[in-house]
C-alpha cells in the first residue's frame, strides 16, 4: 500500500497560450515560490495525461516522461495509453 508521501502527482499538458509545447508539472514537488505560477500554467493548458509516479524510482520515471515530451514536441503523435504503457511499473 502506497501512502501519499510515497508518490509524485504529475500532469502532462500542452501549452495553449505560449509555445504550444508539451510540458510536465510535478504538483507534489512544487515549492511555495513557484506553486501558483506552475499550477496556473497547467490549468490554462490542454490536458494530455496525469497520474502518480512511485517515489521509489521516480528519477527513471521522470526520464521516461522527458523522452515522451521530446517525442511529442518533435511532432510525434502519441496516445495517452502509450504514455501509460511507457511508464509501466513506475506508475503508482
Describe the structure.
- This protein has three helices and three strands.
- The N and C termini lie close together (10 Å).
- The mean pLDDT is 91.
- It has one domain (4-90).
- The chain has 92 residues and is an alpha+beta fold.
- The radius of gyration is 13 Å and the shape is flat.
Question: Which characteristics define this entry?
Answer:
92 residues, three-stranded antiparallel sheet, 3 helices
- Label the overall shape: flat
- Uncertain segments: none
Which percent bin holds the helix content? 25-40%
Distance between the termini: 10 Å
Strand order of the largest sheet: 2-1-3
- The tally of strands reads 3
Task: Determine the number of helices (DSSP H or I, runs of at least 4 residues).
Answer: 3
- Describe the main β-sheet briefly: 3 strands, antiparallel
How is this structure best summarized?
With about 90 residues, the chain is an alpha+beta fold. It has one domain.
What are the SSEs and their pairings?
Elements: E1 7-14, E2 22-26, H1 35-44, E3 46-54, H2 58-73, H3 80-87
Amino acid at each position: 500500500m502506497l501512502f501519499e508521501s510515497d508518490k509524485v502527482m504529475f500532469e502532462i499538458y500542452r501549452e495553449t497560450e505560449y509555445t504550444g509545447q508539451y510540458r510536465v508539472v510535478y504538483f507534489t514537488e512544487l515549492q511555495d515560490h513557484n506553486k501558483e505560477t506552475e499550477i496556473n500554467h497547467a490549468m490554462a493548458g490542454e490536458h494530455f495525461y496525469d497520474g502518480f509516479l512511485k517515489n521509489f524510482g521516480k528519477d527513471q520515471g521522470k526520464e521516461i516522461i522527458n523522452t515522451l515530451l521530446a517525442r511529442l514536441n518533435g511532432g510525434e503523435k502519441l496516445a495517452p495509453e502509450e504514455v501509460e504503457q511507457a511508464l509501466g511499473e513506475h506508475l503508482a
